[in-house]
């Protein structure tokens, strides 16, 4: 199969059958791009995820664009991005054109409640896979676990105590802390 067609169809399949946004798509993206097609390594997928999270735009679209660009240049980026976007676009177009107040239909409302539970599981799975990949790649596992624990506790405290900690502030703090910690460890070696 032509690589451009394969990129489009692979990302269209993910885009068509995933609910819950980019984080819910991460485990499907990893399965398709790393395990099944071997377009990316686990390390590349982890790096793409971090970069896609840090740049403007939906994370799944950024991942698709990067993968397409890596494999087939600008044409690949366009095919992968269109594959990711078009299924959702057409679903929303059809729903908005034919089914006014679709969320008030009891069957749809109940189905979406069930889908929400699955989305939480998909997001947790993607987080677990990212953490596992970080531990594999990091020689200093205690520091990685410490980072994770610190930011998990900070996030839980912010939720429980109603603190508002901007996400960008947490990302910047993690970057600065990582730079300081790993610079010292590198100098000690």
Draw up the topology in text:
Blueprint: H1 3-16, H2 22-36, H3 42-54, H4 59-98, H5 106-137, H6 141-160, H7 167-188
Helix pairs in contact: 1-2, 1-4, 2-4, 2-5, 3-4, 5-6
Please characterize this protein's 3D structure.
The protein is mainly alpha-helical and 189 residues long. The chain has 2 domains: 3-102, no CATH class; 106-188, no CATH class. Helices cover 83% and strands 0% of the residues. The protein contains 7 helices and no strands. Helix 1 packs antiparallel against helix 2, helix 2 (22-36) packs across helix 4 and helix 5 (106-137) packs antiparallel against helix 6 (141-160). The longest helix is centred in the middle third of the chain and has 40 residues, at 59-98.
Strand content: under 5%
General shape: globular
Approximate helicity band: over 70%
Alpha plus pi helix count: 7
Low-confidence stretches: none
Structural class comes to mainly alpha
Strand count, sense and barrel status of the largest sheet are:
none
What is the terminal-to-terminal distance? 49 Å
Q: Round the mean pLDDT to the nearest integer and report it.
A: 84
Number of strands: 0
C-alpha Rg, in Å?
A: 19 Å
Any idea how many domains?
2
Order of helices and strands: HHHHHHH
